[in-house]
Amino acid sequence: MAVTASDDAHRAVDAVWRIESPRLIAGIARIVNDLDVAEELAQDALVAALEQWPGSGVPRNPGAWLMTTSKRRAIDLLRRNANLARKLELLGRGQQTEQWASEPETAAVLDEGRIEDDLLRLVFTACHPVLSPRARVALTLRLLGGLTTEEIARAFLVAEPTVAQRIVRAKRTLAGKRVPFEAPEGPEVAARLPSVLEVVYLVFNEGYAATAGDDWMRPALCEDALRLGRVLAGLMPEQSEVHGLVALMEIQASRIRARTGQAGEPVLLLDQDRTRWDRLLIRRGFAALARANAVGGELGPYALQAAIAACHARALDPQDTEWERIVALYEALARRAPSPVVELNRAVAVSMAHGPARGLEAVDALAGEPTLQDYHLLPSVRADFLARLGRVAEARQELDRAASLARNAPERRLLRERAAALGRHSRTGRL
């Protein structure tokens, strides 16, 4: 089938939209102070591009074309609102809107120096803590990731109407709570930043280790999260934890090609072919970690996790891993951000540094932890320790339990295969 100029233009529009939509929405939101209206006006500019570019050709600077078109429409909207306000004699609101409409050039100027500030405002608004984590993720991917509702629904295995409702409710909540379109300043940055970083890492993790469904990974989500993280690092270079999160994601993403075998089956960390790790991403992760350290102060949870990931990345052979250092880093992480999952990961490092008996002791101390009762990795980790201690029958029971709890299909199959392999070994007397 022949490729037409119209096809090329449509592909160009799609590519430009994915890159430029956050800047468009951010720039318009500064003018209209309404995320819903800002997104509608940006979509209007997209429709205009789809109508005009096939005939006129893609502009030399497509992002600027979309921004100018969007802002002109924003000014037209403000003028209409001002006229309506005057007719209804809503003097208070009318005078404020009239001032905007009487100075369209001022409002519509494409001030490149303010674009980064606008993006930062959009980040903190979409990730505002008044929203639930799911709403924050959906709104962030829509406004900052440039994803459609359909793409978000497919990535998270959620019905499209459900995602659409989350986005609509999120916008209504922001409007109802009168959340201003602004970035926090001073001490408030430290209070609000964890919410932003949590959203980005939630997106990354869902791509790196899908919680449910038939896919072991969804790399496109990892790419979206990395793009958001890199934007944040550029917007907030003085924040150590932003660089720490980017470092963590870069290093973890470097393993993606090695995390599946030839048949698409999951491959665990210690079994991976490390020659397949992406050394460029590792170098980028090391550089981001160095920037986190250079900012100064105590390393935060993301930077500590990045330091742990760096220990694995430096070991070209699993036997060369600095397990003692990893144990120390997990202890620091447990002090900074205590959680049962951190303790479970620390137990794995302890078992590698000091033997499976010590690891099993640490895991058994978590047996009564309510938040881990349905967490499939707890029995999976315990099974590994038991198998290394020669307690094969118990290990197999733990793997069966882990498989029953796992929601991800490939991971469930892997756990069942490990259980079956233990059964074969026990019958032959081998481990």
From TrEMBL:
A Pfam family of this chain: DUF6596
Family: Belongs to the sigma-70 factor family. ECF subfamily.
Residues of the DUF6596 domain: 192-292
Domain RNA polymerase sigma factor 70 region 4 type: 124-174
Keywords per UniProt: Sigma factor, Transcription, Transcription regulation
InterPro entries tied to this protein: DUF6596, RNA_pol_sigma-70_dom, RNA_pol_sigma70_r2, RNA_pol_sigma70_r4_t2, RNA_pol_sigma_r2, RNA_pol_sigma_r3/r4-like, WH-like_DNA-bd_sf
The keyword Cell division appears for this protein: no
Domain RNA polymerase sigma-70 region: 22-82
Protein name, entry field: RNA polymerase sigma factor
Organism annotation: Streptomyces meridianus
SUPFAM superfamilies in the record: Sigma2 domain of RNA polymerase sigma factors (SSF88946), Sigma3 and sigma4 domains of RNA polymerase sigma factors (SSF88659)
